[in-house]
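One record is given unchanged without comment:
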Amino acid sequence: MAHCHSLCRKAASAMQVLRTLLRGHGIVVPSNPTGRGTAGRVRIVLAPAKGKPWPIPPERLGAWWRASAIALSSVAADHNRFQLLTGCRGGEIHGDKCHGHEPIKVGDVDLDAGKLDLRDTKNRIDHKLLLSRQAQEIAARH
């Protein structure tokens, strides 16, 4: 059952990516099964993404950043700032033994190029991230 659920999630995710790419490039597919103009009985309706895209309101980011500097641990402050700057999940940064995720390793970071390779993320694929100057400084310290 879990395998079937995983396949359905992957299929829905693939359709969302395809839809985004087509819209982004202005490509209109006749009788597009995900298009808003397609009749209801043949249209595939994808569930909207869940989650809060802005957990910290933009007007509060500066205050949050300053408050993180006075954390009891500089390691914790750097972890929280790195998470905010990159969008990484906590388990992607420091690992998650329960789910078998390894922490970021030195070899995953290219400070000269300002890049980070995230291995086997939550959606089971690798990601390459470009790091801001601030994120590079944090990675260099650790």
About this structure: The radius of gyration is 19 Å.
